[in-house]
Amino acid sequence: MDDPQPHAPPQAPSPPQAQPPPRSTRGTGGTGLATASLVAAVLAPFTNVGTLPAGALFNVAAYYLGAPTHVYRWQPLIVLGLPVLSGLLSVALALVSLKGAAPRSPNRASAVAALCINAVIFILGLFFTMPHLRYWLFG
Q: Residue 77: is its pLDDT beyond 80?
């Protein structure tokens, strides 16, 4: 059988393409994580704006309803619940960002700043809630 189209001459195989070297992921990842961690750390104290009125409402309701004194032990959990969650989120994001950041990158600086802010908030929180914690734990 004759082919209606003539055959093309065989082509020589092309030389293998040089592969670019693999990009290092160290130092490139975590930009958004470090920024999110810093934002969560800065916003953690301001979340008390929403939880302080809820804690005050809890105390007023417990007082007027004649609740026993052990009910008041839950008030620090109401007031500090959202800031603690925001702080834990910030710490988790900072640790993940630190794992993927180069030693002198801005990502690392942001993550370390977030961890420092969280440490200060934690120490201040312990200082101000120590009487509540003693009452809450030991009655």
A: no
Each residue's pLDDT tens digit, 87-113:
889 999 889 888 877 778 888 888 899
On whether the CB atoms of residues 69 and 53 are closer than 8 A, the answer is: no
Residue-level length of the chain: 139
Give the pair of three-digit tokens for residue 68: 């026993």
**With contact defined as beta carbons under 8 Å apart, do 42 and 108 qualify?**
no
Domain spans of the chain, in order of start? 31-138
Per-residue H/E/C for the chain:
CCCCCCCCCCCCCCCCCCCCCCCCCCCCCCHHHHHHHHHHHHHCHHHHHHHHHHHHHHHHHHHHCCCCHHHHHHHHHHHHHHHHHHHHHHHHHHHHHHHHCCCCCHHHHHHHHHHHHHHHHHHHHHHHHHHHHHHHHHC
pLDDT single digits (tens) 43-58: 888 887 878 888 888 8
The predicted structure's pLDDT at residue 116? 92
